[in-house]
Amino acid sequence: MSTDRPGPADPPGPRGRGVLTAMTFNIRRPLPRYRRAAPDAWFTRLPAVQAVVREHLPQLAALQEVHPEQLHPLREAFGPAHEFLGRSRDAGEHGERCLLVVDTDRFEIRDWRQRWLSPTPEVPGSRWPGDPYPRTLVRADLVDRRTGVLWRAVATHLDPWPERSRLRELAALQRLHLEWEGPLLLLGDMNARAGRSRTWEAALAGGLRDVLPEDAPGTYHRYREPGPRTPRLDWILHGGPVRVLGARVVADRPRGTWASDHFPVLAELEHDDGSAA
Questions:
Q1: Is this entry keyworded Hydrolase (predicted)?
Q2: This model's pTM is above 0.85
Q3: H-type helices in the chain, by residue range?
Q4: C-alpha to C-alpha distance for 43 and 26, rounded to whole angstroms
Q5: Which letter, b or e, does each residue of 151-170 get, where b requires 16 or more Cβ atoms within 10 Å of its Cβ?
Q6: Half-sphere exposure of 114 toward its Cβ, with a 13 Å CA cutoff?
Q7: What are the residues whose beta carbons fall under 8 Å from the beta carbon of 225, sequence distance 6 or more?
Q8: Is 265 helix (H, G, I), strand (E, B) or coil?
Q9: pLDDT digits (tens, 9 = 90+) for 225-236
Q10: Cβ-contact 47, 257 below 8 angstroms
Q11: CB 8: neighbour CB atoms within 10 A?
Q12: What is the CATH number of domain 20-271?
């Protein structure tokens, strides 16, 4: 699947205008078994999810576990300039999806496509034998309207178990979509501990780098106060000429409400043109 938006990018501007914000955020699928007042109930969390998005309003965002009934409130939070790329991970249109959200005031979408992390990546709903769920990636090639730089962004959500599934999904993703000489971002819930898993080692062995320091706090808090054992499953990795200006785990609780069982990760980045920071 691909789409083109005609028209040239804006000419390069003065230094500093190329800074962009990127986020990965597992918003948690809605589970009807929970009562409305439960911490995990979608109607409890919805205002907090919208508040987190509106507060930080990234120009690129990877969202995981999105179900069709969550799309409208998410679009309301991001606003009309943000385009949602991606569709169901299943063969139909009503299942869970991993999305890449793009601010089209900032980026021209040169091309985008969704693929399945399977032996048959173009077959909707396909997966490796033994994998619990179909897994997808959404890849977009984006022209920065401020600088004219062409970026590649990839959003994904890997399997929670077993690790061999994540490793072959990551290998398929690397083989298909990470061969790129320009600035590259890989954003997602990798379901593996940053710094402490074979999935992490395989990702960095391919040349990617983390936007966060090694001692960054965890992201998967499961509606509990995070602590030193909270795993960091949500990553923003970068490759090619990218300069990281800042990054953090967004441990917001709007009005005391957990937005999700994951905290998002937010990064401020720019194309590294070789000049001094």
A1: yes
A2: yes
A3: 42-56, 68-78, 163-177, 198-205
A4: 16
A5: bbbbbbbbbeeebebbbbbb
A6: 21
A7: none
A8: strand
A9: 999 999 999 999
A10: yes
A11: 9
A12: 3.60.10.10
Residue pair 168/128 in contact by the 8 Å Cβ criterion: yes
Token pair of 230, please? 């909270």
Is a pLDDT exceeding 70 seen at residue 198? yes
Angstrom distances, CA of residue 222 to CA of 34, 49, 217 = 15, 15, 14
d(CA 18, CA 5): 20
Phi, psi of 262 (to 5 degrees): -120, 145
Contact between residue 183 and residue 238 where contact means Cβ atoms under 8 Å apart: yes
184-189 β-sheet, strand order = 107-116, 136-144, 150-157, 184-189, 234-239, 209-210
Q: Tokens 């000049």 appear where?
A: 275
Nearest 10 degrees: Cα torsion 4, 139, 230, 193: -170
What are the structure tokens assigned to 25, written together?
């955020």
Cα–Cα distance between 110 and 237 in angstroms, integer?
22
Q: Which residue has the higher pLDDT, 234 or 92?
A: 234
Separation of CA 32 from chain center: 25
Instruction: Note the residue count of the chain.
Output: 277
